[in-house]
Every structure is written in C-alpha cells, then in structure tokens.
Amino acid sequence: MSKDWNKRTAAVHGGTRRSQYGELSEAIFLTQGFAYDSAEAAEARFIETGEDEYIYARYGNPTVRMFEERIAAIEGAEDAFATASGMAAVSGTLLSMLKAGDHVVSSKALFGSCLYVLENVLGKFGVEVTFVDGADNAAWDAAIRSDTKAVFFESVANPTLEIVDIRTVCELAHKVGALVVVDNVFASPVFSDAIAQGADVVVYSATKHIDGQGRVLGGIVLGTEEFIRGTFEPFNKHIGASLSPFNAWVMLKGLETLSLRVNAQCDTATALANRLDGHTKVARVLFPGLESHAQHELAKTQMKRPGTVVSIDLAGGQAAAFSFINALRIIKISNNLGDAKSIITHPATTTHQRLTEEQRQALGITRGLVRISAGIEDTDDLLADVAQALDAV
Ligand SMILES: *Cc1c(COP(=O)(O)O)cnc(C)c1O
Known about the structure:
This protein is an alpha/beta fold and 393 residues long.
C-alpha cells in the first residue's frame, strides 16, 4: 500500500491481504479462532501479537483488519478499530478515554443515541457534560475549561445541517489538552479531512454511506496509533463490541464504490436543493451548498463537497410535510441515510420524537421539516418525484 495514494485508489486497494490462492476480491475469513503450529507458537503470540497475527476475532480478524486499514488509508489516520455499530464506536470512544470526575463539552444537536450516551450514560459514571450550540465558536470557548478532557460533536448536525468549525474548536480544545472526537457521518470519509483539520478521533456509523446499501450495522474509530492501540483496543476487545468478519467484508466492498456513490448522491442533493430553493410551498431549504446556508463559506473550507442530505421546511407545517411524504413514489419513508435508495424522514415525529417541543425548537426541528437523503437513482426522476409530491401538497 502506498502512502501517496489518493482516496479513490486507497478505497479500492487499501489494506488488501491475499491468501495463498491469490484471490482478486477480498476473502471473508469467517473464523473466530486461529490455530497455532505448536504450543510454543501459541505462547509467543500471546506474549506479542505481530502485525498480521490473530488470536481471537473479538481482538482482530484478517477481514476486519482489511476494512480497518482501508478506511484508515482513505481518512489519512494512523490506525483504526472496527466496531459492531456506529453507536459502539461513539460510546466506546468516550467510555475508553473518560473516567469519573472528567469534564466533556459537546454540541447539543446530536443523533438521538449519541445524545443518550452523553446525557444519560456518561452522567451515570460521574462524567460532567456541558452542551453548547455547535455553530457558535464563542460558546465553545466559554464552555471548554482547563480541566476539560474531551470535546464531542457531529461535524454536520442532523437534521438541520449546521456545521461545526472543526479547526477553531480543535484549537480551543488542544489549548487545554482535551481530545476532540468528531462524529463525521454526514460529511463521509470522501468529503471530509477532519483529522488533517485537527480532530484527534473520527468516528463513523459505517451503517450509513460506507455500507450504503442498507444491509448491515457497523462502526469505525479512527485516530493515532497511540489512541487506537493504547486506549480504544484494550477497552473494546474486552467489552466485546467487535465487528463481525462478514459485516466487515460487506463494508470493505462498500468502500470500493463509496466515492462514486457519495459523489452521485451529492450531485442529486445539490440539484434538489437548487430546485426547491424559493419554491412557494417551501419555507426554507437547508443545504451547506446553498449560498443562503448560514455557514456556506465555512462548509467550503472544511468539506470537499456539501454532502448527500438536504432538509426542507414545508410552509404548511406537519400536515404539508405528511402529505408531501405520502405523495412520493420513488423516495422511501425510512430513517436511514446515506443509502443507495433515496430516503425521506420527518424528524419531529420519528428520530427526534423523544425530545421535548422546546428542545426541538431550540434545534430548529420544526413540524414542517423533512430530511431527504439523496440516493443514486436518476437525478431527473427524483426531481420529478419531488415536484409531483409538492403539487399534491
Ligand atoms: C446513525 C448514526 C449513528 C449511530 O450509528 P449506528 O450504526 O446506527 O449505531 C451515530 N451518529 C450519527 C451522526 C448517525 O447518523
């Protein structure tokens, strides 16, 4: 593997291991254990496990390792550890690095399960969490204290697509020695260089764009070798939230087409945003690629492209949103995102139903807001689908 490969080459060849058969496509090593040539060899491996040596699939597996090395190459990270889901990556990262008495600062616009971990789980173990408006650099500055140990945010917030200024927040955190953990799902590894911009740890729900075809759950934690081997691996291999080799293989094959898919999805998301902007039945279009987005300039400096998701606020509130959703013929009603199939979600009544009306208002999640995750279908077909559904409103 070459260090100077661009993302698209790394996504196809990074991390590949071949057995004695020289298979072209990656093999699935569907094994939890490994046999040793002798008792002495087993002893030696337990004393020190070499670069491409394995003991037990909870600790590592050749197919899982291929996935880890491939995504580390795409992301420009020293190392990576795969997990059973995106939430195993988020919760494991935080729990492995924190202890009772520590202080964390987090943006408040979070994926529901991330919010649960930060609000309920960390608190139960004596970790103090301060929530801030992620788009407000002054709020980060005020909340980060000399004893802050970690900073957490989603680089692009769901579903309002607000952007956190990665470079500025990392600078503020690093001044006090805090580690910055970025949940980078909406940016995807293709459009983001969060590690180059200062992030210490980047996590993905691989369930989203990386599989991208709605098949399996998975997650990945990326960071320095010191963090992955010294902090995360000892925690996760004993906690047990390891990725199955079969799922790792699905993700590995997903990475090969990741760039093609997210670029096509971004083309469609951009076309949808442009078409819907100014439509009489649409009060607001939220998309970082639009000049009207409050952080359009920031988005351009930290993301190669504005992403695959567009949120629109229908002028007629929830009734309009529901009739729009129900009139769609191609776009599916679901709560996944980053999928090959275009998906629409009504956050206020599904993914963000658990929040109070007050919390939703503070986050800009109105009753008319719908989130569209652009798939890889024909752009014109999707534009026509959205147009006919708006006519029906
Ligand atoms: C989906 C998602 C997660 C959780 O991932 P799972 O694979 O469902 O566990 C975490 N963060 C963000 C931003 C997500 O969209």
